[in-house]
Write a structure and sequence with these properties.
Blueprint lengths: L23 H13 L2 H24 L3 H6 L6 H8 L2 H7 L2 H22 L1 H8 L4 H35 L10 H28 L2 H26 L2 H6 L4 H8 L9 H25 L3
Length: 289
């Protein structure tokens, strides 16, 4: 019995030691450090804010004064014009949301595809062999960041657009419940776009392929569906367009989406994001890094 009994304690430097144990909070903190130390993150998020606020300002400034617009139409059509004019605030404030969603989508893909291309993902999976906590932490951090940026940019776009339109005779109130829900909805949409794009990046493991797929779903697919629906006059396709990710996202932010209820728009965007997240998580578990 001269052989020394092996210690049951793991070395302090080991990831699973009492001093270095990795819990989910530490994994989240690690992913937050990764995200905020990338120079491209600030440029990407900054450009999203500039696009939303800048385009909203330009659109609001380009809308003619209400007296001019209403005065140019026959009396029989003035009621319809009046109703349409009430939506100008939403149109102006959300006009840059599509471009911001494309920027956020690119960031979502880069967050994970960049680690695959540099090999850093192997270090992350070595520290957290179960892998899913890494992906979940990336998702949580990216969603919160995109949501906050969406909240700031959307609130700023409404704060800029409404005074301009009020000066032209249009009604609008920044503190109304409709406006506040539209601001919150736009932020939620950008956060879920980030989750969707992260899932796409995990599925394809390629920066170019992931960006192409994410932008294709957000931008190209609605255009193709609209063109085909217009040419073929297919009713079911026209109805199906409402359930595309970008169209439902616009519905969340206050824009009319074919008469769909707001909660249906929210569920639609959630489903798109959840499917991408689940498929990406499953493939991360089954494939080599």
């Amino acid at each position: 019995m001269s052989t020394a009994t092996a210690s049951t304690h793991t070395a302090p430097g080991h990831p699973h030691s009492s001093l270095g144990r990795l819990n989910f909070a530490r994994v989240v903190r690690s992913e937050w450090i990764k995200l905020r130390t990338l120079r491209s993150t600030f440029w990407t998020l900054g450009s999203a804010v500039v696009l939303v606020v800048g385009i909203a300002t330009l659109v609001a400034a380009a809308i003619p004064e209400k007296s001019v617009l209403v005065g140019e139409v026959p009396a029989a059509r003035r009621a319809a014009i009046e109703a349409q004019a009430s939506a100008f605030g939403t149109t102006a404030a959300t006009s840059g949301l599509t471009f911001a969603s494309l920027v956020i989508a690119v960031l979502g893909v880069l967050v994970i595809s960049g680690e695959f291309s540099t090999g850093m993902i192997r270090s992350s999976f070595t520290a957290v062999p179960r892998r899913f906590p890494v992906f979940a932490a990336k998702t949580l951090v990216l969603f919160v960041v995109a949501f906050v940026i969406g909240l700031i940019s959307s609130a700023a776009s409404w704060a800029v657009a409404i005074p301009i339109l009020n000066g032209k005779g249009y009604s609008g109130d920044l503190t109304s419940s409709d406006t506040l829900w539209a601001i919150l909805g736009a932020a939620l949409y950008l956060g879920l776009v980030a989750v969707f794009s992260l899932g796409v990046g995990a599925i394809l493991k390629s920066t170019a392929g992931g960006i192409a797929a994410a932008l294709g779903v957000l931008l190209v697919l609605p255009i193709i569906a609209s063109v085909v629906s217009g040419l073929t006059r297919t009713e079911w396709l026209a109805d199906a367009q409402r359930y595309l990710l970008s169209n439902a996202g616009q519905g969340i932010s206050g824009v009319a989406n074919g008469g769909l209820e707001p909660w249906v728009n929210v569920v639609t965007v959630l489903v798109w994001s959840a499917v991408a997240f689940i498929v990406g998580a499953v493939l991360l578990q089954r494939r080599d890094a």
